[in-house]
Amino acid sequence: MYEKSMTLLIGLYYLYHKSPKQKKALQRAFVMMDFKASIMPTRIGWTRWLPHLDRSLSAFFKGYRVLVYQLQTSSHDNAKAEGFAKLATDGFLILYLLQLKAVVSMLMRLSKYLQKQEVSLADAYSRVAVTMKGHVTLKSESECLIADVEQVLSDRAYDGIELTFRGQRPQPVLEKNVDSVIGKIEERFPQKDPVIEATKITGLNNLP
Question: Which are the contacts of 138, defined by CB distance < 8 A and separation ≥ 6?
Fold first, then answer.
């Protein structure tokens, strides 16, 4: 699922980045469907991959209805657009992307907090603990905690676009992804460290 997700997100960026015709067609579609601004697909990857992925997922879902409309319209004479239209309406893939967005959004909030100059070491570790707790909750509640996922399962559609569910549903990957994220966070930010405990006295947020 991850590979299919990256194929879709990267492919959409290059489809509209390299083709002025497709880009103009998408911009016209946003105007026609009464969007205040065009929400173009954004690039993922680079060194700061987390904010790029978060931005790409946000743009994809905010402009989803227009994207799918334009892709389906262009699919008659553009094989790439036809392929991306099928991926974008794959119900199982949309479910995966919504779950991925929930995980990435939590990590983005942590990343932005840690970049603040006034954050102490103790404050940073406290926020890391909160983020880990949030991921544990997300895993325990599973997909029912994500409103959009629950809606897709109920309506078999997203933002008014009917989705296609081919074959059997893949094994749930949310729990596996969250476990992997928590493991990586624990490796980088070990919680039981006497030095970290000692620095809590310097954190204003830790005062009674």
Answer: 102, 103, 106, 145, 146, 174, 178
For the chain, the distance separating the N- and C-terminal CA atoms, rounded to the nearest angstrom, is: 46
| In contact, 155 and 165? CB cutoff 8 Å | no
The pTM of this model reads 0.79
Residue 8's CB: how many other CB atoms inside 10 A?
22
Two structure tokens written together for 190? 């070990």
Of 101, 106, 72, 103, give the one whose Cα is nearest residue 89.
Answer: 72
What number is the average pLDDT over the span 156-168? 88
C-beta separation of 61 from 50 below 8 A: no
Residue 15 has pLDDT above 60, yes or no: yes
For the stretch 43-92, pLDDT in tens is: 887 667 788 889 999 999 999 999 999 999 998 888 999 999 999 999 99
User: Which of 88, 183, 186, 102 shows the shortest CA–CA distance to 142?
Assistant: 102
Reduced to 3 states, what is the DSSP secondary structure of residue 45? coil
- Residue 76's φ and ψ, nearest 5 degrees, are -65, -30
Side-chain-side CA neighbours of residue 137 (13 Å): 10
Residue-by-residue DSSP string for 114-160: HT-TT--HHHHHHHHHHHHHHHHHHHHHGGGG-HHHHHHHHHSEETT
The rounded Cα 147 to chain-centroid distance in angstroms is 14
DSSP reduced 3-state for 161 = strand
> Can you read off the two tokens belonging to residue 15?
């489809």
